[in-house]
Amino acid sequence: MFWKFDLHMSSQLEALLEKDDVTLTELMEEEDVLQECKAQNRRLLVFLSQDTCMQELLHLITTEPPAGLEETRRFKHPNIACELLTSDVGVINDKLGGEKPLLDTLYSFLEQPPPLNPLLASFFSKTIGNLITRKTEQVISFLRGKEGFLGLVLNHINTSAMMDLLLRLISCVEPAPLRHDTLNWLNEEQLAQRLIELIHPGKDEEKQSNASQTVCDIIRLSRDQANQLQENSEADPLLAVLESQECVGQLLDNMFVGERTESCIICGTQILLTLLEIRRPGWVFYSCILKKPSACQLAVLKKGNELASSTSVSGSFLWGKLMGLGVLEVPLGNCRLHVARLMASLLQTTNTSYYICCNNTIYNNTVTLELCRLNTINILLDLFFKYTWNNFLHFQVELCVASPGPTLPLPSVPPDIFTHNPLVTHLFQDCRLVPRILEAWEENDKMQEEGGMRRGYMGHLTRIANTVVCSMEKGPVHSQISSLITELLVDCKGRWETFVDQALTEINRKNTVDLVSHNLRSSSEDDDRQSPFPKELSLQQTFSDYQIQQITANFVDQFGFNDDEFSEHGDNINATFDRIAEINFNAKTAAFEACTKEKIQSFDDNEEEDIWEEREINYTTHTKSRTRYTNTHTFTHLD
């Protein structure tokens, strides 16, 4: 351990500090300067804490280095300077956080015109972030005294380091009273509203993306901190603004009023999805959005419906795209995928029912009614079957279809309140859910019989069919679904019953994970063991592109458990474990006893021999036949 430390290098650093004319550059060339700083070398800290030295360190991290240097050395000294300034040494923190001229030099970096150098921006953000944590009162007071501070940060929001700075101001300020004062200050400066303004078709796409990510992080951080604080603590003003009707309305206007761009719609949708996340009780956002939807919020459903059925958004793919399976004339696009995510999330936030419970009051869900009126789910089903290989879309449509299914009981809600759900009626009558499942299944079977490929949505279609069957048997709308299926045409009803009894039952059986037996063998057989799987399915087999696509598209269904085994109120939670009782261990027990008996016998035969007795060494190789104990292995094919 002693020789790990290079005392020669330390002596060189000490020798430099002995010099009267030693420079910061000379010290920074020494490899152990940072280590000695963190070890609080007294003479080094005295040198570094000088005014001229501190100014030089700040100059290095806020000024673009000369362009003539080698790229590997251009940012060497700025990087070391940043590490010295953020080494968490009390002397340096006190010096930098306690003297306004030094803070002014650091702050001057924000006053540069955009774009900022991303690496220098990260040095700046790390340095001031460390001061926010260690010298909180001094730095917050300094920043509040700078007029236009927030405007400068938002002006450079296209640099990700500025996002980090804002989040540090929100999450790293302690104690709680000072944190609340800081949040009130940021709210007075209208941070939330100004971030929403940046998500606009007229703004740079990078600014829109970073502003959206910042808003999402603020929402999650604020909700997490609210969960950790006591109930009587003051509400987060930034979160209250972001969850307000006015702020959401402004965001929707930016997304859909006037010019519509893909980047603006995607960034805005990401914020809406974050707002709809369930992270704390109370359903404050749900009540404000869904209890009394504004005309703008109902309009967004109409606009989203238009987006789902067209590709007219500026920036969307309007040309063919070459894929492994051919040319896709009109790709789905990221915009329509996000619209599908938003629709699925809106349906889920209604707690999979027609009503919303908030503060012990039942509200009619106008949003769900509007989605039914606009025929949105039917459009999403069209996309589901059109884009055969887009499993991202398939999953979102599956969530939409499953939203009226079994759900947790809501507090203070009469049990018979869910006897009729318009969304269920819309799915089974207007969207023709059962006939479309049957048609798609039959078309896939016919295609495979002709040598074609299994369609990529079949795994999700299986889960949708199982959801329908499960919802018929239990859940708040089981009687309504049973009645709707009874009303089907005689031919369609008969095909459905046959499908459930035969095709669906068979695919569920294949998709159930089988318990695979393992060989009993001694450790000496590891090198020459054989694969228990069929040769054509061994790991050495090269999979075709089709097989890879099939594995990707159906992985969850082929190796997952049936949904009803893990449903919230299902009776089959122990079904998987009960199957263990069906295994016959007799063969394994006999094989194990025979194997161990043979091994023990070999020691018993040599019990009387002297292990230290000299013997003639024979190098002849003897081959002894070995008895292998193998069992039959079951393997489910991926297609």
Give a verbal description of the structure.
The chain has 639 residues and is an all-alpha fold. 59% of the residues lie in helices and 2% in strands. The strands form 2 sheets. It has a two-stranded antiparallel ribbon. It contains 33 helices and 4 strands. It is elongated, with a radius of gyration of 34 Å. The longest helix has 24 residues. The protein starts with 6 loop residues before the first helix and ends in a 34-residue tail after the last helix. A hairpin with a 2-residue loop joins strand 3 and strand 4.
- Stretches where pLDDT falls below 50 for ≥5 residues? 1-9, 280-292, 314-320, 351-364, 406-413, 515-583, 617-639
Major β-sheet profile: 2 strands, antiparallel
> Termini separation (Å)?
59 Å
**Can you give the helix content as a percent range?**
55-70%
The count of strands amounts to 4
Alpha carbon gyration radius: 34 Å
Helix/strand-derived category reads mainly alpha
Kindly state the mean pLDDT as a whole number?
75
The DSSP helix count reads 33
Shape: elongated
The percentage of residues in β strands lies in: under 5%
In the sheet with the most strands, the strands line up as 1-2
